[in-house]
Specification:
heterodimer; A: 214 residues; 8 helices; globular; B: alpha/beta; eight-stranded parallel beta barrel; two-stranded antiparallel ribbon
Chain lengths: 214, 408
């Protein structure tokens, strides 16, 4: 039995929020799919609303206040990310993008991501693929092929009854669980360890190359 | 004024980023000329109140005026007697290392050794393309350019081939460093472990910005630098040469300082309109309050970072008027720094080196003997024999034939 950590980022602005509801469903279903593969996992949920001021301050000062820094470390050190945002004006919310913007651009490289989004109607469902997926592609994260969009109607009787929300959640979660299972547990790299930036057993002289004769 | 600067275990001083910012209280923005003159007045006053160092940044865009720090520092050195003049920082990425070698070796001569150099990569992205470089090569540029600068100051005749600069054959950077001692170099960094490594590799000083971010960032950098300084055989971790930035605003009554500084904080280019002053002072070394609060905060720095050699304060930015900055200097000089000197000297281990000075470094190299005084030889330009184009002082009879060389 191995254990993994999943970070859930929810960019909903209200409380309670349907973004968070979708995030929780995706997380619960992912845990279930992992358990089926005998993989234990824990979930940390980051509600970006709680960090909205810190995120702005980070953009203005260049550093994350302590609470935000903890949240960032939770996300970048996780084995996988479930990212859920409301769709505003055909794209991810500004708060969601602002959070992505304060991350080191290399910090999500290779990380499996399950993308979720919600909006009033299903007309916005393609935003996952034309707006959110390219963002993660740029960051060299590895979003699974299914993105889960929930329209308001998906939460009640008039939702999609051919591919109901629960089915889509289950499909996305299974893909994410498979991606997690294929990988070794993530290892936290210390950027201040000389072997991280020099390579194992190497000295600054190697960075100087021929200049130092090493 | 009795003590020679540098006789101190710790050096205290101020550093300016040379911003020309609108005073949010009066609404007035000084002209470049006014601000340059004001900075000169501030720098001179820092010596008058007993500080040891004045440092100035390098920027190539408004609202900053300091594009040519060596010119400014030469004028400052000419108008002061003890003050060490320094940069904070010089752009090792976009300046030609040959020009840095020449300009700062000249500054070393005209200031009689009262100078040092702080190197950094800069914080303005477009400065790279403005000077024909690529920001994605920032770190390799910093590494290669310094390797050349280091060599130019230590070898009379340099052959050089690198990735970023046209190659050199038989090149001599003039003037040679004063007394044969290269200027002391601090490597400044906000976040880059490779720069701490670079400082450690050469046994140079490491200066942590210590202004913008929480202390934990700088603790990791300084700890890394100290460990690697020992790794490269320059001494124990405690013997590494550490400098720190800092930021204060003071008034006799704490609340007066808070009230007076707040409009400047709230509108400051670097953190204005962001976190509250209370949050920012909590998270970073910025201290706004009474002189005693500043003393308490900065006397504790060595608990975070170990015993260190240089403390520079940023006190003249964000549109603060000249009069206010001069008052701040008075408080620093009369109430804060004398106490900090005592506090930081208490229980300071004997093996922790004093702050580096030219005089001390000359003594370490030559003892009480004669120093190197390079003078071009009659055979200058002779690359065939690989001989030095210089004869050194003292120049005994026959020196023209190479007998006066240090290694002869």
């Amino acid at each position: 039995m191995t254990t993994r950590r999943i970070a859930v980022v929810s960019a909903g602005l209200s409380n309670p929020s349907s973004t968070r509801m979708l995030a929780d469903r995706l997380a619960a279903e992912t845990l279930k799919a992992l358990a089926a593969q005998n993989i234990e996992a824990s979930v940390d949920v980051i509600e970006l609303r709680d960090y909205a001021h810190d995120i702005t301050n980070n953009m203005l000062t260049g550093f994350a206040p302590p609470a935000l820094e903890t949240a960032i470390n939770t996300v970048i050190s996780a084995d996988a990310l479930i990212a859920v945002t409301p769709i505003f004006s055909t794209s991810y919310s500004g708060l969601f993008k602002s959070f992505i913007d304060v991350l080191d651009p290399d910090s999500l490289v290779g990380k499996p991501v399950l993308i979720g989004a919600n909006a009033g109607t299903a007309r916005h469902s393609l935003a996952i693929d034309y707006a959110i997926r390219p963002l993660f592609a740029y960051l060299h994260a590895e979003p699974v092929s299914t993105g889960v969009f929930a329209a308001s109607s998906d939460w009640g009787g008039a939702g999609d009854d051919v591919a109901p929300l629960a089915k889509r959640v289950e499909k996305g979660a299974r893909e994410l669980a498979d991606a997690i299972a294929r990988r070794q547990p993530s290892v936290v790299v210390d950027p201040y360890d000389p072997s991280t930036y020099l390579g194992e057993g190497r000295s600054f002289g190697h960075m100087l190359g021929g200049l130092a004769g090493e | 004024m009795s003590e020679q600067s540098g006789a101190h275990a710790m050096q205290f001083g101020i550093m300016s980023v040379s911003d020309i910012t609108r005073d949010p209280v009066t609404g007035v923005t000084p002209s470049e000329q006014e601000r340059i003159k004001a900075t000169m007045a501030i720098a001179k006053h820092s010596e008058e109140v007993g500080l040891d160092v004045f440092a100035i940044g390098e920027h190539h865009n408004p609202p900053f005026w300091s594009s040519s720090p060596s010119t400014f520092l030469a004028a400052l050195a000419a108008q002061t007697e003890r003050l060490i003049v320094s940069t904070s920082t010089t752009l090792i990425t976009t300046n030609d290392p040959v020009r840095i070698a020449e300009e700062y070796s000249m500054l070393q001569h005209v200031s009689d050794g009262r100078m040092d150099l702080m190197l950094g990569r800069g914080n303005t992205g477009p400065v790279y393309p403005w000077f024909g470089q690529d920001i994605r090569q920032g770190l390799p540029l910093a590494i290669e350019n310094y390797a050349l600068l280091h060599k130019l100051w230590r070898e009379d005749v340099v052959d050089w081939e690198g990735k970023f600069r046209t190659s050199l054959q038989g090149f001599t950077s003039t003037p040679r460093p004063l007394d044969g001692i290269a200027p002391f170099v601090w490597h400044g960094s906000i976040r880059t472990p490779e720069i701490a490594e670079q400082a450690a590799y050469y046994g140079d000083g490491f200066f942590a910005n210590n202004i913008f971010w929480p202390k934990e960032h700088y603790q990791r950098l300084i700890e890394l630098y100290r460990q690697r300084y020992a790794h490269y055989g320059h001494g124990t971790p405690e013997q590494a040469i550490v400098g720190l930035g800092g930021q204060v605003f003071m008034s006799a009554k704490s609340q007066d300082a808070v009230n007076q500084f707040r409009p400047f904080f709230d509108n400051a280019p670097v953190y204005g309109h962001g976190p509250s002053m209370e949050d920012f002072t909590e998270m970073t070394p910025l201290t706004v309050g009474s002189p005693q609060q500043v003393i308490d905060r900065y006397a504790a720095m060595r608990e975070h970072y170990g015993d260190y050699q240089r403390q520079l304060f940023l006190i003249d930015h964000a549109g603060l008027p000249l009069k206010t900055v001069l008052e701040q200097l008075d408080i620093l000089g009369s109430e804060v720094v004398p106490v900090l000197r005592k506090e930081l000297a208490k229980d300071r281990p004997a093996n922790v080196p004093d702050a580096p000075t030219h005089a001390a470094r000359v003594k370490a190299e030559f003892g009480d003997g004669p120093t190197r005084q390079a003078r071009p030889g009659a055979n200058r330009g002779d690359n065939l024999t690989g001989d030095s184009p210089y004869q050194d002082t003292p120049a005994p009879a026959g020196a023209a034939f190479g007998l006066g060389r240090k290694d002869a």
